[in-house]
User: Which sequence fits this backbone?
């Protein structure tokens, strides 16, 4: 398990940064699925998830940026994939009320025709 103490961490194509405050007021609480929030969806079911009892997960008007508000001291980000390609669990260290920005990675398309979301 990787522990994030310094305010910045990553798990696969997700990047986490602790904020002093939320940067937008246009947030919407995300929907739960099986007691978890899906931070990043995978078509093959290998989602990046967090336990909904430990955070509030809020989406913004930008699909590449969302936010976690801690309801507990620490929260674990899990990758629902087994085997050698699974990402190690990431533990965000903090206290209730801490806000973490969640950003999706992106990469240039080989053709040079814009950007695409990184895939696991």
Assistant:
């Amino acid at each position: 398990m990787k522990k994030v103490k310094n305010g910045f961490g990553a798990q696969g194509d997700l990047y986490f940064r602790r904020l002093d405050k939320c940067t937008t007021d246009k947030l919407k609480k995300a929907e739960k699925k099986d007691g978890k929030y899906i931070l990043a969806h995978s078509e093959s079911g290998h989602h990046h998830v967090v336990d909904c009892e430990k955070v509030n997960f809020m989406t913004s008007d930008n699909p590449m940026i969302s936010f976690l508000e801690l309801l507990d001291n620490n929260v674990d980000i899990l990758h629902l994939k087994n085997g050698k390609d699974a990402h190690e669990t990431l533990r965000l260290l903090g206290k209730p009320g801490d806000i973490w920005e969640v950003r999706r990675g992106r990469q240039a398309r080989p053709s040079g025709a814009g950007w695409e979301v990184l895939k696991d």
Summary: The longest strand covers residues 14-19. The chain has one domain: 2-101.
